[in-house]
Amino acid sequence: MADLGNIFKAYDVRGVIPDTFNADIARAVGAAFARVVGGPAAVVAHDMRPSSPELAQAFADGVTSQGVDVVFAGLGSTDMLYYGSGALDLPGAMFTASHNPAEYNGIKMCRSGAAPISVETGLAEIRGLAEEGVPGYEGPKGTITEKDLLSGYADYLRDLVDLSGSRPLKVVVDAGNGMGGHTVPAVLEQGLPLEIVPLYFELDGTFPNHPANPLDPDNLVDLQAKVRETGADIGLAFDGDADRCFVIDERGEPVPPSAITALVAVQELKREPGSTIIHNLITSAAVPEIVAEHGGNPVRTRVGHSYIKATMAESGAIFGGEHSAHYYFRDFWRADTGMLAAMHVLRVLGADERPLSLITEEYSRYAASGEINSKVVDAPGRMAAVRAAFAEREGVTVDELDGLSVTLPGGAWFNLRASNTEPLLRLNVEAADDTEVARLRDEVLDIVRN
Length: 450
Hints:
single chain; 23% strand
C-alpha cells in the first residue's frame, strides 16, 4: 500500500474520504492492528458520518482476516468505545474524525482497558505493517458479533455519578448533529430530575447546522441563545464524537475548561483526599493552586491524551483535565469522557441553590487569550527568536516540557507550541487581567509573525 504518512497522525488516523482514506486502507489497517495489538478479539464502533459504517466494516474484515474476533458495537461515541474496551478488556477502534469537517474520517485506536495507542506505543508499527502488507494468515478467520454497549455505558456512568437527588434542572444540550444526540438521551433522560432541551440531536455527519467543534466560539452561538431564551440552568455542547464537553452558564456565557477541571478536581478530592490531579501545561495556573489548596497533588504534563493517560497510570491520579475540554477519570480506565465531566458539573449545580456562574466564579482567577494560531515558514526559528527575547530578562523562568513555556515576574505566562500536523505555532497567554494578556500576547505575536 502507498505511503500512509499523510493520514497517520501522532495519536490517530485521519484523512479525507475517499482521496486519502477509504475502505481498502481501513481493511489493511485493521489487519495490521490485529497483528500488532493481538488478543482474542477487538471491539469496533463508529460515529454518524456517512462513510463510517463502510470503513468500520472494512476494518472489522481486516481484523477477522488475522483470526481475531470482532465485537461490533455499531453507532457510539468515542467514550462509549472506551467503555467497551475497558469493560470487555479488549483493544478497540473508533471510526470518527471528531470535530473535523464532513469530508474527513479517521480511527482512534486503543489497547485493552482503553490504554492509548500513539506513535510511540504502536501506531508507527501499525502504519508500517499496513504499508508493507500484512503477511497472510493460514488459520481460521475470526467472527463478527454485534453487541449493544450503549445501555451498559449509561448504567456505568450513572453508577459513578448519582444525579437522582439533584434539584430540578433545565439543561440545554447542543449535540451538533453528532453522537451526543445518541448518548445523552440514554444517560441523562432516564428517570432523572433533568429537563433536557435538545439542540441538533439528529445524527447527521454532514453537520447541517454548525461544525461540531465547541472550542470555536462561533459554534456556541445557538446554544447560548437557547439557554437565555429558555431560562435554562446550564448548557452543554458536545463535539462530533461526544468525548469532549463544553459548558455554558445560565447567562449564556462559556465556562472555561480550566474552571471545569478545577471544579471536578475539588469534587474528586472530597471523595479521595490527597489524591493526584493531572493538568496539562496550558491549563490555567488556577488549577494547580486550587488543587493544592484542597490538599491534592497537582502534576503538570505535556498536551495530548497519551501523555495525560501515561502520567495518570504512573502517578495513580484520580482525575486529569486539559484546556481543550478533555477530561480523564481513573474510574473510567483513565480515558477521556465529556459526559462524565458534565455529570459532575450537574451534580454540583443540582446540590447548590446558586446559579452556575457564581459556583464557577471561584475557579476562574485569571484572564486568558485562548489559543491563537500563526502560520509560519520556520517554526523552530520563530520559537528560538521568542526564547531569546525573554530568556535573559530578570525573574523570567523558561521550560521546554512541551514547546516553549515562559513565566514572568508576577505570574503572567505564555506557551508557544508547534502543531504536529500543520505549519502553525499555537500561542496561549494567561495573566492577571485582560490588559496584561493583550500586552504580552501582542509582544509575542510581533516576534512570531514578523
